[in-house]
Design goal:
This protein has one domain: Rossmann fold (3-Layer(aba) Sandwich), CATH 3.40.50. By secondary structure, it is an alpha/beta fold. Helix 2 runs parallel beside helix 3. The longest helix is centred in the N-terminal third of the chain and has 16 residues. Bound molecules: ligand FFO and adenosine-5'-triphosphate. Adenosine-5'-triphosphate (ATP) binds next to strand 8 and helix 4. The site of the ligand Nc1nc2c(c(=O)[nH]1)N(C=O)[C@@H](CNc1ccc(C(=O)N[C@@H](CCC(=O)O)C(=O)O)cc1)CN2 has 17 residues, from strand 2 and helix 4. It comes from Raineya orbicola. It catalyses: (6S)-5-formyl-5,6,7,8-tetrahydrofolate + ATP = (6R)-5,10-methenyltetrahydrofolate + ADP + phosphate. GO terms for molecular function: 5-formyltetrahydrofolate cyclo-ligase activity; ATP binding; metal ion binding.
């Protein structure tokens, strides 16, 4: 199946979720994530804040738990620059002010950018869908493909409300950065072995 078709299908599928289904899926994902043993090795964790009108996976409860119970982890979030198709990155604390951009993405209002991308240990990536090979489908603007190529050390972890596609994504391209793991309400998928 083509990314374009998968994108449209999963956007609709997300919109059809009831509030309770969405909350239940989010709870399963954030519980699995918080208790994942790999987190103990993470110092810098990049994550995303949900576009609620798109019913994206919502990591807010995980974020509050990290601030309270895992102080060894520094959280990072991004601001989007549509003119250059790029992201800039900021340390995210309880004091960070947030506003919504034109796509409804909550973004930090911070001024001091985080430049040490090589130190990021893990990136949590919002997915529309993914296949059993670890290829992913996002909104198709390439923000994450560009960003991920700049942080080679980081484990790339997809976050998806739905399970893996049964058929492969047919139009993968040279820029696609594969996932190492994916967390869903039902499973932790491990694509990290064998490393390609
Ligand atoms: N929560 C979150 N943050 C993120 C992303 C994301 O997917 N989710 N991004 C991932 O790249 C980047 C922002 N890029 C985005 C690109 C498109 C849309 C989006 O909603 N597109 C709509 C059209 C909206 C419109 O034109 O008004 C769509 O495609 O339906 C959102 C974010 C960085 N931050
Ligand atoms: N490093 C890069 N340099 C230039 N163009 C890139 C780069 N990475 C991705 N792109 C372009 O950005 C677009 C990304 O589209 P694609 O369908 O792969 O998005 P996606 O898998 O939904 O990912 P994303 O969540 O990153 O938007 C493609 O047109 C691709 O050619």
């Amino acid at each position: 199946m083509l990314k374009r078709e998968i994108r449209e299908f999963y956007k609709k599928k997300r919109q059809k979720l009831s509030e309770l289904e969405w909350l239940t899926k989010n709870r399963a994902i954030t519980d699995r994530l918080f208790h994942w043993n790999l987190l103990e090795k993470v110092s810098y964790l990049h994550l995303f804040l949900p576009i609620t009108r798109q019913k994206e996976p919502d990591l807010w409860s995980f974020i509050y738990q990290v601030w309270e119970e895992k102080p060894h982890i520094t959280l990072l979030v991004s601001r989007t620059h549509p003119e250059t198709n790029s992201l800039s990155h900021y340390i995210f604390t309880e004091d960070t002010e947030i506003h919504e951009n034109r796509w409804g993405v909550p973004e930090p209002l911070s001024t001091e950018t985080f430049e040490k991308l090589s130190e990021i240990d893990m990136v949590l990536i919002p997915l529309l869908a993914f296949d059993t090979q670890g290829y992913r489908v996002g909104y198709g603007k390439g923000f994450y493909d560009r960003f991920l190529s700049e942080c080679p050390k980081a484990l790339k972890v997809g976050i998806s409300l739905f399970e893996a596609l049964q058929e492969p994504i047919s139009d993968t391209n040279e820029y696609d950065v594969k996932l190492d793991f994916c967390i869903t309400p039902l499973q932790l998928y491990d694509f990290s072995f064998p490393k390609s």
